[in-house]
Amino acid sequence: MQFDIRRFDIYRKVPKDLTQPTLTGACISVSSVLFILYLFLSELSLFLTHEVISELTVEDPVRHTEKIPVFINITLPQLKCEYVGIDIQDDMGRHEVGFQDDTQKIEVNEGKGCRMESHFVINKVPGNFHVSTHSSRTQPDNPDMTHLIHKVRFGMDLQEGKEVKGSFNPLEDVDRSAGQALATHDYIVKVVPSVYEDTSRNIIYPYQYTYSYR
Ligand SMILES: *[C@@H]1O[C@H](CO)[C@@H](O)[C@H](O)[C@H]1NC(C)=O
């Protein structure tokens, strides 16, 4: 007898004129097609969503630099620009009063207030920087340090408007403009280096931080 591979066919064809559509069959077919479609679309959308993967390392990934660039953008609505300055102090003996390089002051609130944008670098040691009136030759009678923070950033900037989970700018929109006028405001900030790599393998080194206020 001649060998015929068709004998192994599990899905044997029934002649067309012997098949008959049924209502149950139609129900099963329609619901399985819908189910397949749902599975396909949900898996596809899961596949297409971006996911941020976090990894912790012990080593400092940003070893190539000993200093951390800082950017601060803050509005003091009740303090004139002539009084506003930045003081930087750290455990390595740095004490700079009224840091001025790379600082822009823009009058707001009809000249009664000031928005300050400043870039500076800090050492990787404990220290502090503060916005104060210390650098001004004449001191205002009642320095009003109420403020609104737009940005405090350490390290390289993530692109503006990028939605990345993490603590790259947690001080954004912190509003202390309704507080007591003569109060001082302290933020205790813990800064950790981060490596951020996007899907096109661009690597940048921002820092993340947390803060507490007192
Ligand atoms: C600082 O913040 C103000 C108010 O949000 C904004 O208009 C300005 O563009 C910011 N400056 C920089 C350099 O990001």
From TrEMBL:
InterPro entries: Erv (IPR045888), Erv_C (IPR012936), Erv_N (IPR039542)
A biological-process GO annotation: retrograde vesicle-mediated transport, Golgi to endoplasmic reticulum
Ranges for domain Endoplasmic reticulum vesicle transporter N-terminal: 5-96
Keyword Transmembrane annotated: yes
Alphabetic keyword roster: Membrane, Transmembrane, Transmembrane helix
Name the UniProt record assigns to this protein: Endoplasmic reticulum-Golgi intermediate compartment protein 1
Entry keyword annotation includes Magnesium: no
GO CC annotation, single: COPII-coated ER to Golgi transport vesicle
Membrane topology: Multi-pass membrane protein
UniProt-annotated location(s): Endoplasmic reticulum-Golgi intermediate compartment membrane
Domain Endoplasmic reticulum vesicle transporter C-terminal: 103-212
Record-stated family: Belongs to the ERGIC family.
Source organism superkingdom: Eukaryota
